[in-house]
Amino acid sequence: xxxxxxxxxxxxxxxxxxxxxxxxxxxxxxxxxxxxxxxxxxxxxxxxxxxxxxxxxxxxxxxxxxxxx
Length: 69
Fold this sequence. Notes:
This protein is mainly alpha-helical.
């Protein structure tokens, strides 16, 4: 969006709203920055998957410990 705003600024028509539109486009942030203690659905999903994998590996290890004795 920032690149589009820059390119459009070279072509701008000096219309009533062109400058305002370019300012809004240049402020568009697609990569949200999370604040402390904030999360996204994707981050939570990854945490859950990681926890499940850890538990699975612990269970597998405990099975092999029982067989090795």
